[in-house]
Amino acid sequence: xxxxxxxxxxxxxxxxxxxxxxxxxxxxxxxxxxxxxxxxxxxxxxxxxxxxxxxxxxxxxxxxxxxxxxxxxxxxxxxxxxxxxxxxxxxxxxxxxxxxxxxxxxxxxxxxxxxxxxxxxxxxxxxxxxxxxxxxxxxxxxxxxxxxxxxxxxxxxxxxxxxxxxxxxxxxxxxxxxxxxxxxxxxxxxxxxxxxxxxxxxxxxxxxxxxxxxxxxxxxxxxxxxxxxxxxxxxxxxxxxxxxxxxxxxxxxxxxxxxxxxxxxxxxxxxxxxxxxxxxxxxxxxxxxxxxxxxxxxxxxxxxxxxxxxxxxxxxxxxxxxxxxxxxxxxxxxxxxxxxxxxxxxxxxxxxxxxxxxxxxxxxxxxxxxxxxxxxxxxxxxxxxxxxxxxxxxxxxxxxxxxxxxxxxxxxxxxxxxxxxxxxxxxxxxxxxxxxxxxxxxxxxxxxxxxxxxxxxxxxxx
Amino acid sequence: xxxxxxxxxxxxxxxxxxxxxxxxxxxxxxxxxxxxxxxxxxxxxxxxxxxxxxxxxxxxxxxxxxxxxxxxxxxxxxxxxxxxxxxxxxxxxxxxxxxxxxxxxxxxxxxxxxxxxxxxxxxxxxxxxxxxxxxxxxxxxxxxxxxxxxxxxxxxxxxxxxxxxxxxxxxxxxxxxxxxxxxxxxxxxxxxxxxxxxxxxxxxxxxxxxxxxxxxxxxxxxxxxxxxxxxxxxxxxxxxxxxxxxxxxxxxxxxxxxxxxxxxxxxxxxxxxxxxxxxxxxxxxxxxxxxxxxxxxxxxxxxxxxxxxxxxxxxxxxxxxxxxxxxxxxxxxxxxxxxxxxxxxxxxxxxxxxxxxxxxxxxxxxxxxxxxxxxxxxxxxxxxxxxxxxxxxxxxxxxxxxxxxxxxxxxxxxxxxxxxxxxxxxxxxxxxxxxxxxxxxxxxxxxxxxxxxxxxxxxxxxxxxxxxxxxxxxxxxxxxxxxxxxxxxxxxxxxxxxxxxxxxxxxxxxxxxxxxxxxxxxxxxxxxxxxxxxxxx
Lengths: 462, 537
Fold this sequence. Notes:
The complex is a heterodimer of chains A (462) and B (537).
Chain A (H helix, E strand, L loop, with lengths): L10 H5 L22 E9 L7 E9 L2 E6 L9 E4 L4 E4 L1 E6 L27 H8 L2 E6 L7 E4 L1 E3 L6 H4 E3 L3 E5 L8 H33 L8 H8 L10 H9 L3 E4 L2 E5 L5 E6 L2 H13 L6 E5 L7 H7 L3 E3 L4 E5 L6 E5 H8 L3 E2 L13 H10 L4 H6 L3 H7 L16 E4 L10 E6 L2 E5 L4 H7 L8
Parallel strand pairs in A: 1-4, 1-5, 6-7, 11-14, 14-15, 15-16, 16-19
Antiparallel strand pairs in A: 1-2, 2-3, 5-20, 7-9, 8-11, 9-10, 12-13, 17-18, 20-21, 21-22
Chain B lengths: L14 H6 L7 E9 L7 E9 L2 E6 L9 E12 L1 E6 L6 H10 L3 H13 L17 H9 L6 H11 L13 H4 L60 H8 L2 E6 L7 E4 L1 E4 L8 E3 L4 E4 L2 H9 L18 H19 L14 H9 L5 E5 L2 H13 L4 E5 L7 H7 L2 E4 L23 H8 L3 E3 L10 H10 L4 H6 L3 H6 L17 E4 L10 E6 L2 E5 L1
Parallel strand pairs in B: 1-4, 5-6, 10-11, 11-12, 12-13, 13-14
Antiparallel strand pairs in B: 1-2, 2-3, 4-15, 6-8, 7-10, 8-9, 15-16, 16-17
């Protein structure tokens, strides 16, 4: 029996059918038939994020992409039609910074730029199923905060049996932490960070010198210039395969080019951005300075926690997008008076006009786990509704560089769509269906684990 | 029925304070809103609530607003009764603790986390659970990393105790350090339960564990397992900022629950979260709270600390569920013996002052509440209640969904909550009840079991109204959800009819919300307690 509804690209999943029983994706709805090329969602209220809402509209999905959207959409005869009267279609929400769903968020060593979360992603974790259940269809899985340089992340969808199948976009960001990892203080943290970047130059010089020496040998020449000149001449001789993983990712953050002795060389690698984690306002300035000094400020995203909003002036000047941690409210006790003050953090960033993305809570608080709830809290505290909605859809898509594919319901974008029973920001609304790249990945009425949380097990029913 | 005799309004001669608060008790307030939810009846569109002299004097659509009245106009707003948490755990915020925590943590959230950790572990004496640096916010983590490895309050106090010269209670064994220097045990050797095992007395302060009033971070009186003669009201700091936090979430009245650390704990108090200081205490001595399950036994076990120590005559407390139930039974049997003049004996004998209170509990004059999370603890509670002819109210009741017929048959009401994704016991570090069911409030409601929802120590996004919001998401009709945090809670607290509703003659404890209170994007705009506006934002 074929258990899995696959797209062509998911063919390998079919071969691994035996896994499925034990895999976490139990709630993913797999039909017998191969996936329809065309899917039409009709009679649905469309909240496209970009543009006005459409009552009783139709979304036509072809080969995983939104082919047409609006009030008067002609439905092809061969489309699989879902009549969604009374429901609301909303883009799948995007978590711009998650360390979950992995084997372990951090390596014990402080500097590990060679790591890729792709090696750590565990598709069988319940986490992915949970994300589908709450309408989150895109996750940027990054290394955790207990690090100096943590490795690169990856943008994935919560379905698939291998990280490769889950991948939406290869990692475009290296995790850098300015606030100290466990056992470190800020001096050691920043010193380690600087050292790592400084060591890259030494490393490249050594490579250059070696390559130059080899070339001399090939040409059967003897050393004709001094060491410094040899390093300079050798820089163009460095080949991509010479650079080990650890140095390659640092090099990519610096722009991907071999830059020796202050001169630009050929671009060897694709440039990489950085997610710089700041736990407190005092971390913001060092983070920005560091990114500027090493030439990657234009590819930097700041991940801000705690009282970072206090550095709003620096942040405005840097004009970089920010990802806010789930602590949307900062509480602080005045050490002298004991008076507690509360600040609603996203409002500060909305007022400053910065591009920001929200992230869901990870602890046991039920509502905060939902990005749509986090957005509703913003509305509650006076952030414009449109902006609050963008902060869980289009803004994270922009930050992750996938806004051309995700983050809103527009013709040409990929069909990552949550179908809600009502207003997505209303906590009483349920996620009824989720389409991931046009594949029906979740149906509430077939969600076995949800039933376990809401219905007494058969043996306990009385 | 429970006597209303316990109902008292404490009136302090605090007129000066009253004036200094700038309160005009005779003021008239008119609230106009899109919707008025009286809870006891259908909601009124474009309603007006008139408040005079601390009472609601009129409610309806065509209420004449007297001249000079303060008008609160909320054209999009919704008015509900002030929320009532029937089992609130309030941060005692004792000054001494405040300084202790502030010196270690700059943010209140980490301080709170640490306080809860200390509470659960008898001040850090338990080895089972350590607070990971990972749990702290980055700033506090950095601060903690910079300091010496987090000292436990217990160890600090124990260190002081060990350094001091201590005279033993029974006068037979000296605890003076010099007499125990080099004193080593053979395997399994017990040294009169004093020196705590193979270590010397100097290294091991376990005998002091029971002497040390553990972290004054809890509402638990540690002098005995049975302390119904103690009153939580004596510990309530009415100026604790925790009350402000409750107020901001629209909560106007709370039952301040005793800690779950004692088998038979103190008597809770019912207080207002704001308003006139003189009128804050609604009822100073309310229900006695007993606890089934591992909260008391977990803390009992922690008395074996430090590692290598064991339960002895100084530290004996129940360490299992059997022990917990035994202490409960013994207390009530002893109360009978005490009344009949039969001498009492045995370890775990409660202080004499506890017995008159227990007798009143048996007579139904003082209500008894029993916290139980797991199914077998709930059944134990019902069994004990049956044995002694007690009428109990169940607190927390995480697995109440498994005992619906039993609860129904015994007519037991449930103060349920909080709704929590992880095992609710995780909040107390005991990891009890691994299968919470999100639809429990709905099932209780459908079964016709009287219930209220509580948030206990949860705040902000998990506060009382958010608990009701979650319950509503999982099947509890919205109007019942609202009722379960207002009128139903008032009823289970046996408050007068004027609480938890908006009607003529009701207490003027009201909340004006920016929209539907159960909507995620609504917030508290105005809170009125006793006819005074106590919060505006």
